[in-house]
Amino acid sequence: MMASCSRSPFLTVAAAARRSDRRLVVRSVQAGDGAGLVDLDLGSTDSPKGWAAYPLAVARALLAAGHAIQGADLLIDSDVPIGAGLSSSAALECSVAVALCALFGIELPPMAIALVSQRAENEFVGVPCGIMDQAASMCCRAGYALFLDTRTLVAQQVPFDLPAADLALIVIDTQVKHDLMGSAYAERRSSCLEAARLLGVPALRDVPAGEVDRALERLAEFGDDVLVRRARHVLSEQARALEVVSRLQAGQPETIGELLSASHRSLRDDFEVSSPELDTVVDVANAAGALGARLTGAGFGGSAIALVAEHDVVAVETLVNEGLAERGFGAAACFTVVASAGAHEVTAQ
Ligand code: ADP
Ligand code: MG
Questions:
Q1: Which helix (H) or strand (E) holds 146?
Q2: Are 57 and 129 in contact (CB under 8 A)?
Q3: Ligand 1 in contact with 160 (CB < 6 A)?
């Protein structure tokens, strides 16, 4: 028997040292624009532009939560693709938060650091993201998927050792970003809130599984087809997510592909957050033998993921790029990812 193929995880690393003043001096190998220098006590209107806003935001969120941090020098290095919908921003925030906590002796559980990092992105960078990316950056374990309840913040580890099952998860980055993302996110969110309000539940997840069809019929009576489709996506996605968890717990990762593809169809037709490039990637990957594929992240560009038998990886990657070229789209960057550990201190002082 062949040993399972081991791939190294994508990592963001933050090296940190104390300073005697109250400044953060931040450098990133990827930014390559020299040091960003920010005063911890700056007024919020003086926020730095560009990437230095993220580490400063984390420092501010720690201060706002009552943690006594001082000045620090930070050096960031990362091979997480930036701006591809894979949350390099959460990786940056969480690695900086872990580094600052370690440096100043602040002991916080992983989910608390995720919340600080989310607050940093929401309040101090101004991106209204949820908790999922930061929770994954902090709480994941090698070989497991994270099943996260974003209401209770209960997180459960679900077996996801794909190499052991001769499977691979390919990320296919279309390298296209559409401007729609910000406004569409707010629109989808308000449609879901409105659908929940009409149904008389706090959130769509509160519709019991056995009452989904009835709830959609009731919504249809209000005559807004768009609202019905948005709700149908969320309600069906909820069921698919639970089904994926139970199949992974049963040790059947090879069976979740069809659910990924069903999810993509729902994101494309009901939630309407796909793009022609992403649809092409998903269709071609499936035609080339992938077990399933879907867009990932916020949509309107960015990346898709495909579940593929290990021996089909090269063929799927090649055919996807051929398919994109045939339709006049630019080449995608493809890489295999593994479920790896969340942010943690790597060297004690
Ligand atoms: P994503 O999180 O999907 O990668 P975002 O637009 O949310 O995309 O975050 C990307 C931004 O995060 C970059 O524009 C940059 O400001 C910052 N960033 C992420 N990683 C790094 C890094 N290694 N060095 C400097 N800035 C980074
Ligand atoms: Mg991000």
A1: strand 144-148
A2: no
A3: no
Residue 92 beta carbon below 6 angstroms from any ligand 1 atom:
yes
Strand order in the sheet with 36-39: 12-18, 72-78, 23-28, 36-39
- pTM of the complete model: 0.93
Q: How far apart are CA 52 and CA 54, in angstroms?
A: 5
Q: Count of alpha carbons within 13 Å of 229, Cβ hemisphere only?
A: 13
What's 4's DSSP letter?
P
What's the distance, Cα to Cα, between the start and end of the chain in Å? 43
Q: Which domains does the chain have, with CATH numbers?
A: 2-151 (3.30.230.10), 163-337 (3.30.70.890)
Low-confidence ranges of the chain (pLDDT < 70): 1-7, 42-47, 180-181, 348-349
Of 88, 132, 133, 173, which is best to mutate to test ligand 1, by the most ligand atoms within 8 angstroms of its C-beta?
A: 88
The position carrying tokens 């929770």 is 135
Is residue 133 flagged as an active site residue?
yes
Cα gap 302→178, rounded to integer Å = 9
CA-127 nearest atom, ligand 1: 7
Q: How many residues are recorded in the chain?
A: 349
Which residue's entry shows tokens 């100043």? Answer: 104
Instruction: Tell me the two tokens of residue 271.
Output: 């939630």
